[in-house]
Every structure is written in structure tokens, then in C-alpha cells.
Amino acid sequence: MHPPKVFDILPFMNVTEIFLKDFRNFSELKLNLSDEVNIFLGRNAQGKTNILESVQFASLLKSRAARLGELIKWGQIESFVKVNFKKADVSQDVAVELNAEKKSRRLLVNGDVARSKNFVGRLNTVMFSPEDLFMFKSSPASRRQFLDGEISQASPNYFENLASYNRLVTQRNNLLKKIREGTARTSNLAMWNEPLAKFAAAITSRRLIAVDCLNTVANSVHKKISAQNENLAVTYEICGLNFDFGKSFYKENFKKNLADWYMKNFSARTNTDIERGTTTLGPHHDDLKFFVDGNELKLFGSQGQLRTTALALKLSELELLKSAFGEYPVLLLDDVMSELDAERREQLLTFLLQKKIQTLITATESKYFPAPKFGTMFEVKAGRIEG
């Protein structure tokens, strides 16, 4: 996972400008950014997080919104987000046009219309928010999203496979409900199982590789920032698997036959799936488990261990993306300074200064940052940048 030495002399990835039009509570915004640390200060509900969300949306097409229409300013029909950035010292831009009436989005890369598979991963970002501190004790979906977000930036094919898989699961679930209601035949399932098994195998294989890499990097980072020099381990739990996946012999042989394994088990679960009206096996049911010194974090982790592990994972994600692209991604820190204690804040800020990572930070108070001045500060009030 170590990048060639030539990577060390390349410029750092950085966002140069953000353009917003009727996005969230911003009627219009044109913002030039520093290539180091940018701090957005203000009271809650002023729009600080919306700025970070616009960059993450332009990177991963990911947002807090349940529906795209929520990203459009109230009372407006259209919204526009454009982010100019430099990657490998080449100026680029990505943009998204949203339309509430058509319930549509239009993606642009350097002014040309693009598909999502050619859009995601152009601008690389890592987001760290308070929700990440609770990821370990929340639903498996949040842990899968963390892993999928990391892999999608490094592999556009993975993003496309994941989208195809999710569509197939939805279509298969619709068929299962019809079979349960007596309006479709069980034999119709066969045509869905093979493509579903193919995509499931591709997704699981890529996740396993990512977890192996994460284990190495995250444990190293975790040791550096934990006063107790604790060991962090990450495992991938495959739904329906009944042997110890940690044993390398089983692991390697299993990976070679993943598609066959999924085909066999999709068929074996036919009656259960029909009864429940849903696909009960597949990557959408898998989970990540985290262990500190052999103890599962979800069950036995202290608040300090949860915070240290969350921080270690995000710093590891930065390192892994640097290994893939040769330069650090842009880091987005949404209101996490108040969630970290003084020691962890210092560790994080020191890391950013040492690595010269462009960072966008939201905070309610300037006291979280070293005096006399740390980074470029912007004051956010009611959907406007002041000062």
C-alpha cells in the first residue's frame, strides 16, 4: 500500500472554488478556498454543513438528503453545484444540476455531460462527522456505507457494480412479493439469481481486499494516536457464512468460488425469501466488526476507544486514497472538533499540518483552534459568507 516515491513530489489535491445556486439555504455563493485549512464558523443552522455537503455531493453524489429535492432551496425549481479543483496539478471541475419538477440530476465533468460511473472519484474527499463516532454501535448499513464510500472513489467499476447490484435486489424483491401473492411463478427467480450472484461476488471480493488494506493501515494509525498502544482489528462478516473467515486457507479458496457460493445459497433460500418477500442473502446484509485488543468495540468499547477508532479510520482512509492516487484527498470535518477531547483535537490538527492536507472544517467556536491564527476563517450567517 506504499505509493512510489515520485508521488511525494506531486502537488496536493485541493478545491479552488465552490459555486452554489439555490443549494440548501444558499441562494448564490462563489467561494475561493485556501489550499490548506478552511474554517467555517457560525451558530447552528446557518449553512456551515451545507458547504461541506456540496463538496461531498460533487465528489460522491452523497448527501444527507433522503430525496434530491431536499437539496434545492425552498421555493425554487432548480439547483446548481460546481466545484473547481486541482488533481495531479491539472485544473478540473465537476458540477451537478438538479431539477425538482423533473426529479432529475445532470452530471458534468469539465463541462461535458457524464454518467455517474465517470463522475464519482474525480474529486476525492473524506468526510468526518459526528455520526462517524457512533458508527460502531449503529446499524450495519452505516458501516457498509463507510466501506463503500472509500472503495467507490478508488474504483469506478465498484460504484457501477454496487448500483447494478442494488437495482437487481430491488427487482428480485418485487418478484418475490408477486410470487408470495400468487401472481408470478417461482421458476422466474432463476433468471435473477445468476446476475445477482455475479455482482454479489464482485462486490464482496473488493470489500475483502479493502478490509485487508484497512487492517494494516488503521492499526498502525491507531497505535500512534492511542496512549495505551492498543491494537485495532477489522473483520468483514459475510451473511450466511458459517466458518471462521480469518483462516487463510478457507479465505482464499472461498474467494475463488464466491459466485458459485452465492448461486447455491440464493437457491437454498428460495422458500425463505418468498415467505419474507425479500432477498435475505448478499452484500447488503454483510457487516464490519471492529476489535480493540481482541474485544469487540460495539459491545465493550469505551467512549475514548470509540473516538480513537473513528479518528484512526478516517486518517487511514486518507492514507489509503493517497496510495491509490498519489495525493491526499480533501478532508471535510463537520462539527467534530466539539466531539473530540483536547488531546485528540491536537493529534488531528497536528496531522493536518504535517501532511499539508486541504481541509474544510465547520465549528461553532474559534477556541478549538490554536492561536493566534490557524487556517483561513469564514463566518457563515443565514446562507451567506460574511467578512
The CATH topology name of the largest domain reads Glutathione S-transferase Yfyf (Class Pi), Chain A, domain 2
Low-confidence segments, given as residue ranges, are 1-10
CATH architecture of the largest domain: Up-down Bundle
What shape does the CA trace take? globular
The residue fraction in helices comes out at: 40-55%
Question: Describe it for me?
Answer:
By secondary structure, this protein is an alpha/beta fold. It folds into two domains: 183 residues, P-loop containing nucleotide triphosphate hydrolases (Rossmann fold, 3-Layer(aba) Sandwich), CATH 3.40.50; 190 residues, Glutathione S-transferase Yfyf (Class Pi), Chain A, domain 2, CATH 1.20.1050. The chain contains twelve helices and 15 strands. The chain has a six-stranded antiparallel β-sheet with strand order 2-1-4-5-6-7. The protein has a six-stranded mixed β-sheet with strand order 8-12-13-3-14-15, sandwiched between helices. It has a three-stranded antiparallel β-sheet with strand order 9-10-11. Strand 14 and strand 15 form a beta hairpin. The two termini are 43 Å apart.
